[in-house]
Each structure stands twice: as structure tokens, then as C-alpha cells.
Amino acid sequence: MRLSKIAPSILSADYANFESELKTIEASGAEYVHIDIMDGHFVPNISFGAGVVGAMRPHSKLVFDCHLMVSNPEQHIEEFARAGADIISIHVEATPHIHGALQKIRQAGVKPCVVLNPGTPIAAIEHVLHLVDQVLVMTVNPGFGGQAFLSETMVKIRQLVTLREEKGLDFDIEVDGGIDNHTITAAKEAGANVFVAGSYVFKGDVAQQVVTLREALHD
Ligand code: DX5
Ligand code: ZN
């Protein structure tokens, strides 16, 4: 069985105190920190860039899971690799060059992840699955924290599990959006093993919220 990993999203953290927020996440026992990069073009908001990722890097040993919600992500891979990203996730909808862009992430020494919006079918990534270490199935439309989990996306996770088995591939399946102590169970039952949670983790005591997510996984 694949190990479950919890990835608190700093989109819901205190932007003036990333250093202490990272320490809090690390102390909670979460494996990853999920860093949402938004460009005001692929999604309406602007969040933070590679400079912020680079500034955070010396303060944490957590896996930096960088989710690029940006148009033409292939133009930004080197800067996020240099900044210290461990995983770079790019949207299949954001570039006509998804195959080359995923190769570029690997060449930069970073783990590649391909992302699907709720309306995008698995068929859109079938021919690049051999290039990735992780597939992110969005469980909300990207751009905002605090949205409701879309349960209709679970069918795509099941399809991915089947494809992974048929093709003998090895990648994690991540979910992002609307994850709480109920929806995490549904996502795990469908076959996901990496769980991003923003508003749920930061609405209370971070360590306690991570414990409730972990308990709901019944690992
Ligand atoms: C949404 C982002 C998410 C966001 C999730 O576009 O990709 O990572 O932080 O927030 P919650 O967990 O509040 O839905
Ligand atoms: Zn995200």
C-alpha cells in the first residue's frame, strides 16, 4: 500500500509569518507543505512567486510541493527548481507542451506532477503518465481556498488507479480542494494518497487539525 501524506496549503496561512507557519506545519507531523503559485492569468488571483519559495527554503525540511497555477509553466521551471521545489505540479490545461514541460522538470532534478482541473478528462494525460511521480486531481476549480469538494471527481481517481495498474506505472495520486475530515476518507477510498488541505488545517490548531485528518484516513 502507498503511504498517505498530508500537505497543508500555505494559501490559508499567515503570509506575514511564513517562517513560523512552516515550523508549525513541520511540528504537526505533516509530510509536505503545499505551495500554491497563482499568476492572475491562468487563475484570477496572484499569490506568490519563486522568490518567496526561495526565502522559505532555509527554514524547513518539509517536502515543498509547488502547485503552479500559471499559464505556460514551462517558462518558470528553472526558477522554481533553483528556489528549492521538491515537486513541481503543472496543469495540462496551461500549456500546449505538457510532455516537454514534464521532461524539463525531471531534467531540473525535481519530481514532475501533472494536474487536471475538474472538467478535464483522464484521457488528456494518458500519454504523459510515464513521465510523472505524481498526478494531482483537482477536487475544486483552481484559484481559491475554501471551496466545496466536488465528489464527481472521484471517478477520475478510480480510472487513474486502474490505468496505473494496467501500465505498471508508479505515481502518487494527490487531491486538492475542499479536503476535510470527511472528504479525505472518500478521496482515500477512491485511491488518492496525498491530501492537500488549506482552510481546514488553518481554521484551528494546525497540529490538532492534522491529527483529525490522519485519524479519518484509518491507516
Ligand atoms: C486552490 C488551491 C488549493 C487551496 C485548497 O486553487 O490549489 O491548494 O489552497 O484550499 P482548501 O483546502 O481550503 O480547499
Ligand atoms: Zn493547490
From TrEMBL:
GO terms for cellular component: cytoplasm. A divalent metal cation binds at H34, D36, H67, D176. GO terms for biological process: pentose catabolic process; pentose-phosphate shunt. InterPro entries: Aldolase_TIM, Ribul_P_3_epim, Ribul_P_3_epim-like, RibuloseP-bd_barrel. Keywords: Carbohydrate metabolism, Cobalt, Isomerase, Manganese, Metal-binding, Zinc. Binds 1 divalent metal cation per subunit. It catalyses: D-ribulose 5-phosphate = D-xylulose 5-phosphate. Its cofactor is a divalent metal cation; Co(2+); Mn(2+); Fe(2+). Substrate binds at S9, H67, G143, F144, G145, G146, D176, G177, G178, G198, S199. The keyword Manganese applies. It is an enzyme of class 5 (isomerase). Pfam families: Ribul_P_3_epim. It comes from the Bacteria. Belongs to the ribulose-phosphate 3-epimerase family. Catalyzes the reversible epimerization of D-ribulose 5-phosphate to D-xylulose 5-phosphate. This is Ribulose-phosphate 3-epimerase. The gene is rpe.
